[in-house]
Design brief:
The chain is 38% helix and 23% strand. The structure holds zinc ion.
C-alpha cells in the first residue's frame, strides 16, 4: 500500500537503523565472546522508557549507541545539523540519558559497576564537521581500534555479570511489533507477487517460474506461492486461509487450480464447503514437500 509521508519516513528510519545494527554486529562478532552481550534492550526506570542498542558486560559496562547516519553533518555547541542546516536530535544527549537511567537502575538492583558509553557511527559515508576531540564518538575508520581496545579488556565472566545480565533481560519490556505498524487491511494492500530478491512487484508468471523483470531473479511458482502464503499468514494471522484469498493475493497466477494444489499439498483443509479453510500442518513435513514439489506445477 502507499504509506503516508510520515509512515514512509518512519519506515526509512527504521530500515536504516536496522542496517546499522547489522553492520555493527558484524564488526563486533570477533570480540563478543569476551563479553556478555545484550542487544536491543527496552527498559523502564521511574516511568521513563529508554532503549539501548548494545551492552557489553565485563569489568565495566560498555553501552553502545549505534547510528547509521550517511552524508555530512556538523556540530554547533550542543546542536547537531545536517549539511542543509536542518537541526536533528543530538544523539549524544539521547545516549547520555540512557546511560544515566541505566546507572540508576543497576544501582537500585544492588550492583556497583561503571558504565562507559560510546556513540558508534558505522556508515563509511558519514562525516561530522566541527566535532570536538573529546566526544565519546567512534567514527567508522576508528572501529578496528575500538575492537583492539575491547580485546585488551577480555576477562573471565563472573557470576555478578551473569546475574546482572539476567536481571536486565527479565526487565526488558516486549512491546508488540503490531503497535508500531501502520493500519492495514487485506483490501487496501496492493496485490501481486513481489520478487523475493528486490521486492519489486514487476514480476511475470510463466508456466513454471516467477521472473522478476527488475532484477532477473527466477523462482519456481511453487516456492513463490508458498512464500506469499507465509506473508499472508504473517500479515493476517487471525484470518482464514482460503484458495480465494491466496488467489486474489497472487494475482498474476490465472487459475485457482495451481493455488488449490499447493495449498492442499502443504496445508490441511479444515471443514467443508464455503466455510472450509486451510490450516498449517507440521513444519517438518512442509519443508520436505517443499523440495519434492519443485517445478512440478503449471498454471
Ligand atoms: Zn527482483
Amino acid at each position: 500500500m502507499s504509506l503516508s509521508p510520515k509512515e514512509h519516513s518512519n519506515y526509512l528510519y527504521l530500515e536504516k537503523g536496522y542496517e546499522g545494527e547489522v553492520i555493527f554486529d558484524r564488526w563486533m562478532e570477533e570480540v563478543e565472546k569476551g563479553f556478555l552481550v545484550l542487544n536491543d534492550l527496552l527498559l523502564e526506570h521511574g516511568n521513563t522508557k529508554f532503549q539501548i542498542d548494545s551492552l557489553f558486560l565485563s569489568q565495566i559496562i560498555h553501552l553502545f549507541e549505534v547510528k547509521n547516519f550517511e552524508g555530512d553533518y556538523y556540530i554547533e555547541g550542543d546542536r547537531w545539523y545536517t549539511n542543509n542546516g536542518v537541526e536533528i536530535n543530538n544523539p549524544l544527549i539521547q545516549m547520555k540519558r540512557a546511560e544515566s537511567l541505566l546507572r540508576r537502575m543497576i544501582r537500585e538492583l544492588g550492583y556497583n559497576m561503571n558504565i562507559e558509553s560510546t556513540l558508534v557511527f558505522v556508515n563509511p559515508n558519514f562525516y561530522l564537521y566541527q566535532a570536538p576531540r573529546n566526544l565519546p564518538i567512534i567514527f567508522p575508520n576508528q572501529i578496528p581500534r575500538l575492537l583492539i581496545n575491547l580485546q585488551k579488556q577480555f576477562s573471565p565472566i563472573k557470576n555478578t555479570h551473569t546475574n546482572l545480565a539476567e536481571r536486565l533481560l527479565s526487565l526488558h519490556s516486549h512491546d508488540s511489533p503490531y503497535s508500531r505498524l501502520p493500519e492495514y487491511s487485506f483490501d487496501r494492500l496492493k496485490k501481486g507477487i513481489a520478487c523475493s530478491q528486490c521486492h519489486s512487484m514487476n514480476t511475470i508468471v510463466t508456466r513454471k517460474a516467477l521472473i522478476c523483470t527488475n532484477c532477473g531473479k527466477r523462482e519456481t511458482i511453487h516456492e513463490a506461492v508458498l512464500r506469499n502464503i507465509r506473508d499472508i499468514q504473517l500479515l493476517f494471522p487471525e484470518e482464514a486461509l482460503t484458495v480465494n484469498r491466496v488467489h486474489e493475493w497472487c494475482q498474476p497466477i490465472k487459475t485457482k487450480k495451481a493455488i488449490r494444489n499447493i495449498l492442499s499439498e502443504n496445508y490441511t483443509l479444515d471443514g467443508f464447503g464455503p466455510s472450509s479453510r486451510y490450516v498449517t500442518v507440521d513444519k517438518s513435513s512442509l519443508e520436505k514437500k517443499d523440495t519434492h514439489m519443485e517445478g512440478e506445477l503449471s498454471t
